Amino acid sequence: MTTAATDKRRVILDAAVRVFARQGFHTCRVSDIADAAGVAYGLVYHYFSSKEQILDTLFLERWDVMLAAIAEADASPRPPQEKLEAIAGFIIDSYRHDPELMKVIIVEVTRAANTFGLTHLAKIREAYAGIAAIVAKAQSDGRFRAEVTPEFAAQAFYGSVEQVLTGWIFDSVAVSEAELERAKTMIVDTICRGLERRGPNPAGESA
Amino acid sequence: MTTAATDKRRVILDAAVRVFARQGFHTCRVSDIADAAGVAYGLVYHYFSSKEQILDTLFLERWDVMLAAIAEADASPRPPQEKLEAIAGFIIDSYRHDPELMKVIIVEVTRAANTFGLTHLAKIREAYAGIAAIVAKAQSDGRFRAEVTPEFAAQAFYGSVEQVLTGWIFDSVAVSEAELERAKTMIVDTICRGLERRGPNPAGESA
DNA sequence: TGCCACACTGACTGACCAGTCAATCGAGGG
DNA sequence: CCCTCGATTGACTGGTCAGTCAGTGTGGCA
């Protein structure tokens, strides 16, 4: 069953990523997607009920993977810094693997307050909540200081990551592997330092 | 000369803010703006050459004030933490004063990579560069550690602020004065802690 | 009083495009 | 060899909307 039928659907989705990334959701035509996919116009409507549903599908596909990554990080027994590093790493790897898809998700969904974003607001908030939960746990462990609310810390963390990606997206210059790794380290380093307690700060922490 | 003529122009701009904030730039009609301004359709084109130029004007008006605020902070003799606090304060005050305008700028311009953002990319980058300059200076002073590049620090800082605003924008719940102030403190605190050197912990600290 | 310049009006048009649908293709099964 | 059914095609339609333009109202000035 995962033959030609499903293949074409996939081809259309992949073409849509390229078209949305280049022209933007609102500016592109459905025929652009069909052309990019090498498929007749009508076939797009055979697989999707509307232009919006294509974007919908792209977002949900990827975001669900991200929510799983956050949940997995949260569930692991590692220290909070490493959990956050895993999340930042996941997001940056997503960009490494498919920069155009990340561009579409960030530009057209995550920030598209009015039209599209509202539909997926709950999903988006789930991610913030997952990160906040990690911070909250770190605070009650005494590893992170309590002056900063977990919700705020989550926004600051996610915002930093997304802004760094946005910078790359707009520069339209390929980012080297080294830069990607370096960025991950810098984000996690900076934010974790900002959140950590300072008092007893030995190598082998023991609150 | 700053009579009725200029007034109507202003009325149209203010109406556009409300309309863009509620419906989004791409989704709204020019007639919506004219209606909201209580003005004939054609008058919009008397003052502006296109729908896009309205957004253009709104963005530039506000962004230039922000660039000035950044430059002023940079020029002051205060420590870097206070400079960054002034900038975060300016952005948050902008939101306090006109949340709808900030929504439009963030959602429709700052993140609108494809169509609109590119036009103003240079202006937007100027802001990042201004913040980066402050960080760079703080690093050569020895107040901030050098492991994090100034460009990255600027992105992380600005990204945190913008993400917190985005959170408020989407919540569509009025934010209290106290929360606004608290957010400012938390952002600056967190990021500055993340950027500071740790070694000697002199009396520059709030203690 | 007459005239000009310009703010202002809103009906109209030309272009564009999302979504529809009737027709064609082709694989598999009888 | 024909029939069926889902995949596939692309011309067409209905509606929308940015931008135009011919015209009206009015304040100021000679």
The assembly state of the depicted protein chains is homodimer
Residue runs with pLDDT of under 50 for 5 or more positions of chain A: 201-207
Helix-strand sequence of chain A: HHHHHHHHH
The percentage of residues in β strands of chain A lies in: under 5%
How far apart the termini of chain A lie comes to 56 Å
Helix content of chain A: over 70%
Structural class of chain A: mainly alpha
The gross shape of chain A turns out to be elongated
Largest sheet of chain A: none
Describe the structure.
Two copies of one chain form a homodimer. The first copy, chain A, is elongated. Chain A contains nine helices and no strands. Chain A is an all-alpha fold and 207 residues long. The longest helix of chain A has 28 residues, at 113-140. Chain B binds a DNA duplex (30 and 30 nucleotides) through residues 4-5, 8, 29-31, 34, 39-46, 49-51.
